[in-house]
What we know:
Structural class: alpha+beta
Number of strands: 11
Oligomer: single chain
Radius of gyration: 19 Å
Amino acid sequence: MDAASPTVGVEEEFLLAEPISGAPSPRNVEVAAAAGEIGIALKLELTRCQVETNTEVHTRTSELLDDLCRLRTGVASCAEKHGARLLAVAVPPAVPDAFPVTDTPRYARIERNFGMLAHEQGLCGCHVHVGIPSRETAVQVGNYLRPWLPVLLALTANSPVYRATDTGYASWRSIQWRRWPSAGPPPFFDSTAAYDDMVEMMMASGSILDTAMVYWDVRPSVSFPTVEVRVSDIPATVEETALLATLIRAAVVMAQNDTRPPPRVPTELLHAAYWKAARSGLDGAGLDTITGRAFPNRRLLAQLIDYVTPALEQSGDQDFVSDTVAAIVARGNGARRQLAALHAHNDVTDVIDTLAAATLEGCY
Length: 364
């Protein structure tokens, strides 16, 4: 593998919603069957109102964008055939008290062991996989990526509306998701053995049931030769997802080339920075995880882009990143667009319409 331009793949989780009310629609089995007929293999998520797409493995951002559009448009068509809308949203804007759990042995086991956590999900994220040469590399790359996780969350925040209410957070998914015992930023690991010891402890204690429940926001993938970054809400648009993947891949390249030791950011500081990012999103203030000082998240994003610019220049992605960030700042990310729709008429159906349009924006 060429370390200068490693492969990248993306998993996107989507909400299936009723067309009018926007309430979660428990039709993932039917939609997945229809998608299979057109050559799209969907993964069933914990609740029946969710599906997950998986892109092919790519080295070019333009090809990743095309693949993301292919998947979103194809699955949206299958959802429509079964009376549902496909929404790129990280929490359901209009929800019932609980979600039906998908009927698989593993999900039934999670339901038995974690109770209401399994029934209050419907949380949709985006996972970016970047090819790396070894698990050892993945663990060390994770140490370098830890300081940047909050700003990636702020960039992609797309879950401010829940139960038809402005939650006061740009990413309510992040707040909800971190109730799981293994979610959030990972510890700093000096070695792969230390990583494995921590996972073994969590399994022995029952806080996770298998290695797939290691929900840390950066981890060695359990299925692929990749480092997996899981901090993001599902972005509102394909361009935002491609931007996220491009920045993460560039950060992985920089981490592998960095001769300095990775910063040992205290987990407590990361938790505070996560909260600020979830609260404020891209339009508010965040925490610099190195200094502990508050700065606008747009400034922190600019610092990340400065850090990864050599990798972006090498891959030819610098213009795409610059143009896409400028467009998001001008138009707003998912969180800002949802809140504008909600507060225009105080009607959650406007939020649903906005999300449905954004999900396929740029794909026609």
